[in-house]
Amino acid sequence: MSQKRQPDGRLKTILLGLDGGDLEIFDLFIGLGLMPNLSALMAGGCRGPLLSTIPPITSPAWTTMTTGLDPGKHGIFSFHRRLDQEMRRVPVNSSDVKQKRIWDYFSEQGKRVCVINVPLTYPPSPVNGLMVSGMLTPGSDVDFTYPESLKTGLNDACGGYQIDTPWHHYRRGRELIAALRANLANRRRAIEYLMAREPFDFTMMVISSTDRLQHAFYGRIAEIGRRGGADSPLDEEICRFYHDLDDLLGHLSRQYRKSHQIFIVSDHGFRPVHTKVNINKWLAQHGCLRSKGAFGGGWLRFLIRRLDRVGAERTARKLLPGKRSGRTVAQAHIDWKNTRAYSGAAGDQAVYLNVAGRDPQGVVPPADYINERDAVEKILRSLFDRSRGEPVLDTVHRREKIYRGPCVDRAPDLVLQCRRGYVITDKRSEARLFNPAGKQTGWHSMEGMFAAAGPGIGPGRRLRSLSLPDILPTLLYSRDLPLLKSFDGAVRTGMFSPAFQQGRRIIQGEGSTERTPEQAVVDEDLIGQRLRSLGYL
To answer: Which of 201, 254, 377, 459 is 20 to 30 Å apart from 435, CA to CA?
Structure first.
């Protein structure tokens, strides 16, 4: 940063991320008396919706929140890079984030930081403090901490640190709930162990099990809401999970609320899913895509469906084309020389044009790009579910209309926003145009959640129009630290009390948001397994 100012050295900050946290869901469990601590935190502070990225996907959303920048500037649009010359889509990792993140700005100001389980932090980067990497970490046998020596003590404190829960592997609901509750308890032990090491100036932690549970059990949560409580052992276990989460919030509030401002955020919200839509099937029907052989037919379709049902990724990769992690089975069966457009994976919610000179086996002449994109957009907008009597897509976005910055050319050509109840799939095991949702009854929505409490937070306030890029500049302001003019977010002073705001000014300076990470060598196959186990491939 170009300038320093004298910050308030007494106040400290906790930024608690609840992946997929949704105010409607939390209000349901508050109403059932299961989340009194969250209720008290929000009543004594502020709350409001938090608008996600388009589309509301984990990797771009958390990166936007932590950099304060539009995806067009930080360059993360999904869990994968674009197709490379070997026709692979390699999973992204922390070295793909070329912009500073919130803990970097605190570190630059001499503040001690603790970063726990934030997505897209593997391999972990040097910070002025500690880091434990989160989602997209290949496994617990790699070096997932900074410093490396932290790993041994963390494993001892947690009885073996758990990075995530591969929820697609579980066939029984109560077994999955038990695993998610165990993961939450493991995360709590890690948080307590790490925060007890020293009084960190800034701590950021992310709870991922909220997202996993809501993907699998959104339908059951809705039933609990309609019936006003649990009426089955499975529903009771779901209620216990949210009570466990609330108990963690209570611990943080009792331990730190007097000395810390506590901010609670999510990367997106949740909504129900009843239908998975195979966009590649629709594109094939309109002559935009050609598949090698039958589109998901015959013995191959049957085999993939069975392997997918039991979570047998290792067997699938041995038997089927596209077995490398960077290539989905569906993409392995695309006849690229006769394909003008194709769908990304579920974690993209987007369509790519196959452009000559840009893409490895591109066929669309660059001079025809605009006309071709217009034609594909028209085809997508015409997608209609006759069985329900409604269009599938609310909006089809052209990338330059929703992103701005030097990385826009890396973005998908068309970004899709599905109507409530629909989600995009590219699985050949779901080869019909319209497929039942199966065990995934919930998907991401645009509206996440925000709450804050602690010294200087105005009590009882309801916030509106808050978006992910606002979080970074607002937190820097709250600690009297300088901002950069190049941030895309704004300081949301309305959450703070008049007394707290008195004497504070928003000081913006020139400076670079860029960082130069070391290029990482990671096990792409293991990361691919992780994404499959979470339903993103």
So the answer is: 377
Distance CA 453, CA 13 (A): 11
Q: What rounded mean pLDDT belongs to the chain? A: 89
pLDDT band at 525, cuts 50/70/90?
A: low
CB–CB of 79/347 below 8 Å? yes
Q: How far apart are CA 300 and CA 421, in angstroms?
A: 28
Task: Please give the Cα distance from 31 to 228 (Å, whole number).
Answer: 9
- Mean pLDDT, rounded, for 172-191: 95
- If you ran DSSP here, which 8-state letter would residue 355 be given? B
Domains along the sequence of the chain with CATH: 13-201+211-268+446-533 (3.40.720.10), 273-441 (no CATH)
Helix residue spans in 382-523 (DSSP H): 399-402, 471-478, 498-501
Q: Is the pTM of this model over 0.85?
A: yes
390-420 in b/e form (b: 16+ CB < 10 A) is: eebbeebbebeebbebebbeebbbbbbbbee
User: To which residue do tokens 């579920």 refer?
Assistant: 346
Residues 6+ apart with CB under 8 A from 146: 124, 125, 126, 127, 130, 131
